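Task card 7
Instruction: Convert sequence to structure tokens.
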Amino acid sequence: MIENLNPKQAWALLQSNSAAVMVDVRTSIEHSFVGCPPDAIHIAWKEFPGMQANVSFVRQVEEKVHDKASPVLLLCRSGVRSVAAAEALEKAGFKRLINIVEGFEGALDENKHRGNIDGWRFHGLPWLQS
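Output:
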């Protein structure tokens, strides 16, 4: 079963459990230009051009997360792609998968802007930008 945590809960888990790992599944462009949480491992679920699926995603996570019982928190822009990524990891035998609802940028507001309603950055959690 895939757990859902909001960004604040996810940050608390990362702070309290040294075995927990965050995987940022956004595209390279999102990761580089929009920003990312510190220490998140970037492994894109889909990538430009055309948002093609990363067929090596599971293998790449396995290379970084050696214990499939470790908590793996998955982050995308708004909490949708991360669910699909978690499902793929669940099929590969990972035991504790956590979708970060709201994602990094959060939901669209009435003006179709992200970051004004919810999301990692909205909550003032640590992040970096290149």
